[in-house]
Amino acid sequence: MTRIEHLPGLDAAPHANVFPEHEPKTVKLALDAGERVPEHDHPEREIVLYLIDGALRLALDGEPHALEAGDVVRFDGDQDISPVAEVPSTALLVLARRSPEEY
């Protein structure tokens, strides 16, 4: 089944689940300047983050990474994750279940 969503129309804040109940989990993240997501993890997931607009500081296990619009980051969801928006920012995240051979 093909399903299309218009990303700007998803307005749940700060997270909007693009395709609820479907894998891989796909989330739109919208943060105002200075807004942060508290440190957390996503065990047994591989994550791809595409920064659509804005600028983020992404802490992964405490190590800071500066991201600007257009950057794509792939990382292990077992890490502690905490993004902070430098300016109003929008990102698309795909959280894929890791295959059993990757454990």
UniProtKB/TrEMBL annotation:
It comes from the Archaea. This is Cupin domain-containing protein. Residues 31-78 form the Cupin type-2 domain. Signal peptide: none annotated. Residues 1-21 are annotated as: Disordered. The lineage of its organism: Archaea, Methanobacteriati, Methanobacteriota, Stenosarchaea group, Halobacteria. It holds the Pfam family Cupin_2.
